[in-house]
Amino acid sequence: MSEISTSRTGQPSRWSTLHVFLHWAVVAFIIVQWWTGHDVGRLLHAEERGRTVDTSEAVLAYTHVAFGVLVLLSMLTRLYDRYSHGRPPHPQDVPNWAHWLAKATHLLLYAVLIVMPLTGLAAFFGGIEPAEEVHETLWTVLLVLIVLHIVGAFVNHFHYKNDVLLRMMPWHQRRAET
Question: Is pTM beyond 0.90 here?
Answer without folding.
Answer: no
